[in-house]
């Protein structure tokens, strides 16, 4: 009888020891902040998410309906209330803009913090992704400070507790940061012609130069320097085309230059066959 009790107790002890486990275990049914970063493809997914948070079709139509570029007389929405002079702080558009823009900034900060966890990542690919993310973050901060003026400003991911105590930073400081970010990353990005076909539409050196000029013109900060930078960026490939045009007709040269300055098929995009109605 005693032997049976001893065997039972021993079995229970073995089971208890085997079932011991750490309290902080990584879940096996979903990714954590650290376990996600296992490949370059997954890093690209986060970059793609940041792109969608920087700007999307919904935000574009919202912006256009607040301008004189488009008019929608049927929808009863926040944009209509603003157009009619009936805006109040309770409109969802103000709250959602704030939330969505800071959501995009968080995506950028998480990427910058975690991308080094990706094993065997090509250094040039990583550098380009980081430059793209820094551009997106700068764009988000520019929209934030345009809409709200002085806003909470930070350059790394913060905790929930820290978010409750962070103060607002004046617009001039944020604009200065944006200018420096764009200057720092422009040479880490390819030109449009250097992008492979599957990457068309991603941020390029030309996009950065154009943004520098745009921000400079809006804020009147060293605008002449930024305009000169953009002119040099455009003029350099144009001069190279002209120098390499021996034996070509002037029409061919003009077409090649147009591909540098404007997108391919630009004139075709103005054709009546592309006309649409927003009410269709």
Task: Please supply descriptive tags for the structure shown above.
two-stranded antiparallel ribbon, 280 residues, single chain, mainly alpha, disordered C terminus, extended
Secondary-structure topology with pairs:
Layout: H1 2-18, H2 40-54, H3 57-65, H4 78-83, H5 92-114, H6 123-148, E1 151-152, H7 160-163, E2 168-169, H8 171-185, H9 205-219, H10 223-243, H11 250-261, H12 266-269
Antiparallel strand pairs: 1-2
Determine the fraction of residues in helical runs and give it as a percent range.
55-70%
Strand content: under 5%
Major sheet size, sense and barrel closure: 2 strands, antiparallel
Strand numbers in spatial order across the main sheet: 1-2
Overall shape: it is extended
Task: Please give the count of helices.
Answer: 12
By helix and strand content, what is the structural category? mainly alpha
State the total count of DSSP E strands: 2
The radius of gyration computed from the alpha-carbon positions, rounded to a whole number of angstroms, is 27 Å
Distance between the termini: 87 Å
User: Which residues form runs of ≥5 with pLDDT under 50?
Assistant: 263-267, 273-280
Q: SSE order, as H and E? A: HHHHHHEHEHHHHH
């Amino acid at each position: 009888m005693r032997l049976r009790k001893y065997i039972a107790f021993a079995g229970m002890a073995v089971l208890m020891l085997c079932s011991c486990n750490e309290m902080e275990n990584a879940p096996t049914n979903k990714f954590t902040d650290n376990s996600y970063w296992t490949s370059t493809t997954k890093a690209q997914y986060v970059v793609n998410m940041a792109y969608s948070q920087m700007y999307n079709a919904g935000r574009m139509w919202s912006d256009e309906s607040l301008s004189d570029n488009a008019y929608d007389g049927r929808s009863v929405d926040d944009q209509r209330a603003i157009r009619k002079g009936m805006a109040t702080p309770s409109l969802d558009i103000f709250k959602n803009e704030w939330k969505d823009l800071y959501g995009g900034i968080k995506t950028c900060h998480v990427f910058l913090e975690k991308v080094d966890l990706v094993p065997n990542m090509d250094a040039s690919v990583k550098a380009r992704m980081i430059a793209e993310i820094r551009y997106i973050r700068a764009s988000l901060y520019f929209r934030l400070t345009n809409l709200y003026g002085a806003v909470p400003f930070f350059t790394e991911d913060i905790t929930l507790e820290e978010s409750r105590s962070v103060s607002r930073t004046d617009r001039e400081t944020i604009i200065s940061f944006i200018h420096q970010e764009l200057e720092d990353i422009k040479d880490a990005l390819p030109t449009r012609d250097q992008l492979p076909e599957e990457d068309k539409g991603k941020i390029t050196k030309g996009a950065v130069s154009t943004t520098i000029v745009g921000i400079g013109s809006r804020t009147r900060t060293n605008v002449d320097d930024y305009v000169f930078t953009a002119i040099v960026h455009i003029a350099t490939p144009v001069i190279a085309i002209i120098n390499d045009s021996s034996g070509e007709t002037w029409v061919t040269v003009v077409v090649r230059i147009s591909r540098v300055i404007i997108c391919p098929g630009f004139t075709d995009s103005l054709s009546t066959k592309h006309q649409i109605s927003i009410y269709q």
